[in-house]
Description:
The chain has seven helices and seven strands, in the order αααβααββαβββαβ. It is of the alpha+beta class. The strands form two sheets. The chain has a five-stranded mixed β-sheet with strand order 2-3-1-6-7, with helices on both faces. The chain has a two-stranded antiparallel ribbon with strand order 4-5. β6 (249-256), α7 (263-278) and β7 (284-286) form a beta-alpha-beta unit. The longest helix has 74 residues, at 54-127.
Amino acid sequence: MSTKSKVLRKKRSGKRVSLYGVLKANEGIKKEISVAADELNSVNDVLKQGQTSVSVIKQALKKNEDAENIVAKAAEDLKRVNIKLSNEIAMRIGIESELDDAKTDLAAVRDDLVQAQVTEKEARQRALTDKLTGLPNRTSFDQALAHGLVQAKRHGWALAVLFIDVDKFKNINDAHGHDVGDQVLLTVANRLRAFVRDGDMVSRWGGDEFVCLLLEIKQQDDVVKLAKQLVECVAEAFILNTQTLHIHISIGIALAPQDGKTADTLLKCADTAMYRAKASAQQVALFDQP
């Protein structure tokens, strides 16, 4: 419990005790006034009698004086009670104001916390995402590959790493400018992302290079078939500002565990296979392919 909450609880407790005392004092004053009223009634009854001795009149006058004193004292007591009651009301208003302030502070803290969580999430997302394409970046891919290798070893799965390079991308930049080059990379990213399965990952490795992680591979031929389909998908005509461009990619494939059991080994093998693919008519090559 916070210090402020303890102070408010203490104040509320004090308020209940004080109000109880004020109400009890008020009840006492009412009883005193009631007694005075009875005395005055008895005096009036005596004075209404036609023949009354001097001693009885003196007693009646004494009772009247006592009753007046009681009323005067009750008036003073009531005045003090009203002052206490006013103080208690003021204290209650103050406590309620503090409670409202505390609620406002808590709401502000909650809003700050939510904003901090959003900011942290956005920062984390930016740290793991390629700015241009929106694909996972190299850091994100490294994490996914490391996790995939652990799962593959645990469950006896095979997985594949595809290293993808856009052919003659420098020529595109030189001929059409970097804005068109960025659009080409974005188009390649979107086509690759739309083609792979859920659970697999396409990442921009850097520059004009992409990598793809395929999990739970059953047959080597399935990976080769998918890579060839990716080549065909990316090669579809790309129209930008009335210009028709044809994009070509080369893909090198490394398989785990046969080509390597670590992330670094698989990436190096896939990169080596990618350069071999550039010399191939199919534009796809396996690392262990003769």
